Amino acid sequence: MHIESVLSTWEGESCHLRHDRETGVWFAIAIHSTHRGPAAGGTRLMSYISAAAAVADATRLATAMTLKMAVADLPMGGGKSVIALPAEAPRPDLATRQRLLTLHAHNLERLGGQYWTGPDIGTSSADMDILGRQTRYAFGRATEAGGSGSSAEETAQGVFEAVQATAHEARLGTLADRTLLIQGLGAVGLRVAELAADAGARLLVTDLDPDRCATADRLGAKAINPTEATTTECDILVPCATGGLIDTPTAHRLPCAAIAGAANNILTNPEIADILQERGIVYAPDFVANCGGAIHLIGREVLGWSADNVRARTRNIRDTLDTIFTNARRYGISTERAAHDLAAAKLARAEAPADTGQ
Ligand code: NAD
Ligand code: PPY
To answer: Domain residues of the chain, as ranges?
Structure first.
């Protein structure tokens, strides 16, 4: 994989790269679209095998953010950034982390508001507080620091709406006595597990960290090996770990009736949704299912919405998915294609870039 081939085949507006010689870290900020407003999307801090892999991740995630903002009717564009630690690097110590966040804050300032960030894998509200002391372009700071706090609760609520809509489309009825396999019991996955347990679902859970699985014991969940996430029979697979869970061979043999989860880019490419459709597996496009977090961050911090309004908008995810499922059936296309078409129609209707009001 080369940076040239990644960027020359990507349809985004710009990608900004910076290397920090002292730590060997690459920073990549991908701005896919500012058509509906300034680009926004989280900052991922994790190890990558190469700078090209980091750029590939940032660009694909930024594209998904554009689609997410459009389907959620939010007045922002799509972007994402990656702070790429060298492969096999140890966890950065506090001083290194502080240094990386300071450099990233400078990156954001240089872009002058074209791109706003927030938490993502490897970063938290505490990191947004550090960024927020040096730049105004960070969403998701702690409430005590003037931000809207973690978006995980709203993301989980939205994913739960998506799971229910998907169960209905797959003719599974309610979740009572249905088996959900939740991969990743982090901030979002554990909360989805709680909501599903309350609805009477049977839970299979898996996480690379066995202590996380133990936190779901009280929900009556059965832990399975992380390597068995896509080979264990279940009604609904709920990916809440990292992306790329389902590639072509996996799609051909998945033993489930439906898929709806929080992870971004669950499919290694969008065409995999055609295989799922042919197999009769109902797939909730991830950028629709997981948009509750974006609704929380943008709703609270840009649009001044109340928590109740944010929750009402998050509940709309179910209606949006129903529209997507109906269109997919009507036109004989995959749910991913139908979701892209819905986002494209909203993008085409977008007027001049909106003012974030900040
Ligand atoms: P998190 O880091 O709190 O949790 C992720 C969990 O997945 C961790 O417990 C980790 O150990 C586990 N994990 C990682 N790889 C795994 C594997 N191969 N098998 C099993 N477990 C594995 O993250 P989160 O905030 O809960 O987010 C979950 C996913 O949802 C991420 O992909 C994130 O990008 C996406 N997402 C989150 C939000 C949000 O508001 N937090 C919004 C949109 C999308
Ligand atoms: C995501 O939803 O994938 C995010 O990256 C969260 C987010 C949403 C909007 C602004 C910043 C971060």
So the answer is: 3-139, 152-292+319-345
Measured distance CA(276)–CA(248) in Å, rounded: 10
Class of the domain covering 3-139: alpha beta
Of 297, 302, 303, 305, best ligand 2 pocket probe by most atoms within 8 Å of the beta carbon: 297
CATH 3.50.50.60 assigned to 152-292+319-345: no
Nearest Cα to Cα of residue 101 among 141, 128, 120, 81: 128
The rounded Å distance from CA 5 to ligand 2 centre is 26
pLDDT tens by residue, 21-51: 999 999 999 999 999 999 999 999 999 999 9
Q: Is the pTM of this model over 0.85?
A: yes
Helix axes 292-301, 51-71, angle to 10 degrees: 70
pLDDT digits (tens, 9 = 90+) for 218-243: 999 999 999 999 999 999 999 999 99
